[in-house]
Amino acid sequence: MSDDAVSPEEVRHVAELARVDLADDEVDQFARQFADILDYFETLDEVPEVDREADLANVMRPDEVRDTLEREEALQNATKTEDGYFKGPNVS
């Protein structure tokens, strides 16, 4: 892909959308960099597809039923509680 694949006007438009002020030399630099990025994407298009699906394995453990804490025991180290529940700071 040639360096003029991305025009300076397109770079200025993207910079305006991103609210970035660019000097003229920066516009030229970004145009070249954008062209390089597009070249990389063209290279990725040349990678052959894989015709097999990956072997998937369930890595999750099975659920186990266990006894839970009593409410008082769960709240015993809480800094603040209210009506039997944890109380956190107000969010504004």
How would you describe the overall organization of this protein?
- The chain is mainly α and 92 residues long.
- It has a domain at 3-44: Glu-tRNAGln amidotransferase C subunit, N-terminal domain (Histone, subunit A), CATH 1.10.20.60.
- It has 3 helices and 2 strands.
- It has helices spanning 8-17, 24-45, 71-75, and strands at 81-82, 85-86.
- The chain has a two-stranded antiparallel ribbon.
- Helix 1 (8-17) crosses helix 2.
- The radius of gyration is 29 Å and the shape is flat.
- The relative contact order is 0.10.
- Its EC number is 6.3.5.-.
The oligomeric state is single chain
**Would you report the number of β strands?**
2
- Poorly predicted runs are none
CATH topology of the domain at 3-44: Histone, subunit A
Query: What is the overall shape?
Result: flat
Instruction: Report the portion of residues in β strands.
Output: under 5%
Helical coverage, percent range? 40-55%
Q: Quick one: biggest sheet?
A: 2 strands, antiparallel
Q: Which CATH class of the domain at 3-44?
A: Mainly Alpha
Number of H/I helices: 3
Which structural class is indicated by helix and strand composition?
Answer: mainly alpha
SSE string, helix = H, strand = E? HHHEE
Strand order, biggest sheet? 1-2
Q: What is the terminal separation in angstroms?
A: 52 Å
| Mean pLDDT reading | 88
CATH superfamily of the domain at 3-44: Glu-tRNAGln amidotransferase C subunit, N-terminal domain
Indicate the CATH architecture of the domain at 3-44: Orthogonal Bundle
Radius of gyration: 29 Å
GO molecular function, one term: asparaginyl-tRNA synthase (glutamine-hydrolyzing) activity
Family: Belongs to the GatC family.
Subunit structure: Heterotrimer of A, B and C subunits.
Pfam families: GatC (PF02686)
